[in-house]
């Protein structure tokens, strides 16, 4: 059983999750607008062949593991000459960050007076206990590789004809995307792709939506911005 609201992460890691392929945002926005969603069965006809021909393939799923870049960009040089208050600076250069792999002096709020050390959590899936290793976009990217939670790393963890997909749930009054994790699809799923969940407002398909123990549709209704 996966607890969606446990293990809170620091803000920098949360932004990394948001950036996870921007996949998450596009994954959800694909369902904005259109017709109302219909009840869904996870045995729709597909182009698959053989024993899996009756299993619908998600548009986004993790077929194979990915090796992450070991190279990492840097914010150096960090100019703190205009900072009257250095109390928010946990580091001033990458060399200050020695507690983990590929340490970088990072700017969590894009402010040179507010810095912290960040480290790569993984390079491959084998470095992660449960979910997969999610990579930065390139070797020049300054964000870190992180382990996401989940009950699968690739499709093969989900059994015969199974699929492992990225799930994320909008939360809060601003409908920010949070709690990303990788989850197997199940026979009880009410949806597979975001387009199955178009019901007005900001609709999405996620594991655990509406407190279901499978993939289900949910809707986030942000307050209007004046």
> Largest sheet, if any?
2 strands, antiparallel
Main-sheet strand order equals 1-2
Low-confidence stretches: 1-48
Strand fraction equals 15-25%
Q: What oligomeric state best describes the polypeptide chains here?
A: single chain
| Helical/strand content category | mainly beta
Q: How many beta-strand elements?
A: 8
Work out the helicity level. under 10%
Q: Kindly state the mean pLDDT as a whole number?
A: 79
Measured distance between first and last alpha carbons: 40 Å
3D architecture notes:
By secondary structure, this protein is mainly beta. The protein has helices spanning 11-18, 23-29, and strands spanning 101-106, 116-120, 133-134, 146-147, 164-171, 176-184, 202-207, 215-220. The chain has a domain at 20-65 and 150-220. The chain is 7% helix and 19% strand. It is flat, with a radius of gyration of 20 Å. It has two helices and eight strands. The model is unreliable at 1-48 (pLDDT under 50). A hairpin with a 7-residue loop joins strand 7 and strand 8. The chain starts with 10 loop residues before the first helix and ends in a 6-residue tail after the last strand. The strands form four sheets. It has a two-stranded antiparallel ribbon. The protein has a two-stranded antiparallel ribbon with strand order 3-4. A two-stranded antiparallel ribbon has the order 5-6.
């Amino acid at each position: 059983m996966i607890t969606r609201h446990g293990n809170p992460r620091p803000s920098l890691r949360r932004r990394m999750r948001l950036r996870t392929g921007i996949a998450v945002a596009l994954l959800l926005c694909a369902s904005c607008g259109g017709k109302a969603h219909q009840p869904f069965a996870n045995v729709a006809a597909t182009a698959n062949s053989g024993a899996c021909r009756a299993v619908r393939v998600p548009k986004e799923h993790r077929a194979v593991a990915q090796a992450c870049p070991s190279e990492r960009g840097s914010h150096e040089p960090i100019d703190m000459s205009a900072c009257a208050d250095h109390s928010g600076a946990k580091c001033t250069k990458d060399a200050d960050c020695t507690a983990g792999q590929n340490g970088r002096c990072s700017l969590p709020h894009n402010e040179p007076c507010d810095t912290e050390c960040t480290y790569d959590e993984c390079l491959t899936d084998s470095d992660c206990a449960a979910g997969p290793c999610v990579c930065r976009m390139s070797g020049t990217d300054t964000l870190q590789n992180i382990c996401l939670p989940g009950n699968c790393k690739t499709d093969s963890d989900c059994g015969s004809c199974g699929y492992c997909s990225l799930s994320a749930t909008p939360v809060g009054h601003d409908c920010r995307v949070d709690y990303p994790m990788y989850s197997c699809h199940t026979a009880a799923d009410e949806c597979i792709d975001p387009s199955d969940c178009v019901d007005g407002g900001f609709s999405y398909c996620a594991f655990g939506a509406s407190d279901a123990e499978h993939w289900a549709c949910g809707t986030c209704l942000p307050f209007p911005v004046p």
